[in-house]
Write a structure and sequence with these properties.
The structure holds two protein chains of two kinds. By secondary structure, chain A is mainly alpha-helical. Chain A has nine helices and no strands. The longest helix of chain A has 40 residues. Chain B is of the alpha/beta class. Classes of the chains: A mainly alpha, B alpha/beta. At the A-B interface, helix 5 of A face helix 2, strand 6 and helix 3 of B.
């Protein structure tokens, strides 16, 4: 039993090591020519722009729900005036980045895993190499960079849609004016709240792109393998995001102690 | 490529390759003269496709060397390997067309990557390549809309996009009807006449007789016979003679 558990932990660590090396290689190769800016831009559009409806709608709904919950709690203490500020802090510091990461891991991670997996099993990756194109750079590096670029932008959209959703909920209950709501919301937000929390999602983007590309590149066993690569991309990227978030939050508190 | 150069276009020297415990190629040595057609025969799973992938550097031998135009492919990395790959075309068994772009863009892809031609010229050349394989009207179709034979011809057009000196062809007649198969063979012979070196993997004997100047038969990772079709017909090995008598289609 102990031996099996040990083997399981060892194989998990070996997997993490392989994925980490894959990601490090991607970052290293991103700085070497030839640069694939056109492909990166195309993927930022595919990954970023096409995710905006999902992110905006989810952000809005989360804002509404958070506002209702916050009101229910703060009402007991007669602190309804704190609702906009509390909601903005919760969204910008943690809820927005984490939920955006998990949503993009589902939408984009699955897509990258399935697309690259299908290309692997149909020899399209070999075909790229055969026409003298570096498949790793063309397929993996571009997608990973696009995820890194898109995540902070999408998180910002989610934050603002969430705050707007909170306003809609609050206005419909208490009739608070938009000017008062947004004044109260942004009066407590500083750049040190927004910048580190939003930039940490670049790490989430790195994780999503790396895990999904790695699994896509290592797909075997035909269409069944493609399905597995797609599902595993979502599951493993989500786990990695949640775990890395702990370390990143600790790091942010270390760098900005006033925010702890 | 220097036309007066008499060195082999492709040379394998003691190439051995194993996947896990299974030895797929066992000390393979062969040479392909420039401008000739070389057919690699053998039953399924004998290492024919693996041999092709070694030539273009998609696989590296556990031991031995693979030379293309005198350069050791197995020792090349990055830019040098890309350079040597630009002198080769590869037609995959399942065509391996990029399914997210049109047929025309598949053919244009190598030109977009490796030339600084304007878009209009790239499109023009891609159309011409598609016309060579009778697919000019299918430029804007997606690969998923093509039949197996059309995909194969589109794959051939893409493989020929940069006018390579060497064309590697994996099972050109696999899954095709005899007429389409004969059309592909005719295209290959035509390319050979224009000076392209062909390395063709097949177990279709009529096709091999048509395309190949020299044939070699792989069995359990080893070359058990090599020579012209007539020489293999007269082989001492009964299995080789039986294989050559077969009408195996794809």
């Amino acid at each position: 039993m102990t031996e099996r558990l040990g083997l399981l932990i060892l194989s998990a660590l070996a997997w993490v090591g392989e994925v980490a090396l894959f990601g490090i290689r991607a970052i290293y190769e991103a700085f070497l020519p030839p640069y694939e800016w056109k492909e990166v831009a195309r993927h930022v559009f595919e990954i970023g722009w096409r995710s905006v409806p999902l992110i905006a709608l989810s952000g809005f709904a989360i804002g509404v729900v958070l506002s209702m919950h916050t009101r229910a709690s703060l009402e007991r203490f007669g602190a309804e005036a704190m609702i906009p500020a509390g909601l903005a802090i919760a969204l910008i510091r943690e809820t927005g980045p984490l939920v955006a990461g998990l949503l993009i891991s589902g939408r984009v991670g699955a897509g990258i895993g399935a697309e690259l997996g299908a290309m692997k099993v149909t020899e399209q990756i070999d075909a790229l190499e055969a026409v003298a194109v570096d498949s790793f750079k063309f397929l993996a590096v571009t997608r990973i960079l696009a995820c890194i670029i898109a995540m902070p932008l999408l998180t910002t959209i989610m934050d603002f849609c969430g705050i707007f959703g909170g306003f809609v909920a609050e206005a419909s209950i208490s009739g608070m004016s938009p000017q008062l709501y947004f004044n109260r919301a942004f009066s407590v937000i500083e750049f040190t709240d927004f910048i580190p929390a939003t930039l940490k999602t670049a790490v989430f983007g790195l994780i999503i792109g790396t895990v999904a590309s790695y699994l896509g590149f290592n797909t075997t066993q035909g269409t069944e393998g493609v399905g597995r690569a797609s599902t595993s991309s979502v599951v493993l990227a989500s786990i990695c995001i949640i775990l890395s978030n702990v370390v990143l939050v600790k790091f942010i508190f270390f760098m900005f102690p006033a925010k702890a | 490529m220097n036309q007066n150069d008499t060195s082999p276009a492709v040379k394998l020297e003691g190439v051995t390759k194993a996947f896990k415990d299974r030895k797929v190629l066992d000390n393979i040595t062969l040479e392909v003269a420039q401008g000739t057609g070389f057919c690699l025969l053998g039953r399924s799973g004998t290492g024919k496709s693996v041999t092709l992938k070694h030539i273009i550097g998609l696989l590296r031998p556990d031991s031995g060397h693979v030379y293309v135009h005198g350069k050791d492919v197995s020792a090349l990395n990055g830019r040098e390997l890309a350079e040597i790959r630009r002198s080769m075309g590869f037609l995959f068994q399942n065509s391996a067309l990029f399914d997210s772009i049109t047929v025309g863009e598949n053919v244009a892809f190598p030109m977009r990557r490796h030339t600084d031609w304007p878009d209009s010229k790239i499109r023009e050349v891609a159309r011409a390549k598609l016309a060579d394989v009778d697919l000019e009207k299918d430029y804007d179709k997606m690969p998923g809309d093509l039949s197996g034979g059309m995909k194969k011809r589109a794959g051939l057009a893409r493989a020929m996009a940069l006018d390579p000196d060497i064309l590697l062809v994996d099972e050109p007649s696999a899954g095709l009807d005899p007429i389409t198969s004969a059309e592909i063979d005719a295209l290959l012979v035509n390319l050979k006449k224009k000076g392209t070196t062909l390395v063709v993997v097949t177990h279709n004997i009529p096709s091999a007789r048509h395309v190949g100047d020299e044939l070699a038969m792989l069995h359990e990772g080893r070359i058990i016979a090599q020579g012209t079709a007539e020489e293999l017909d007269r082989s001492d090995d009964e299995m080789v003679r039986a294989f050559m008598r077969s009408e195996g289609s794809g």
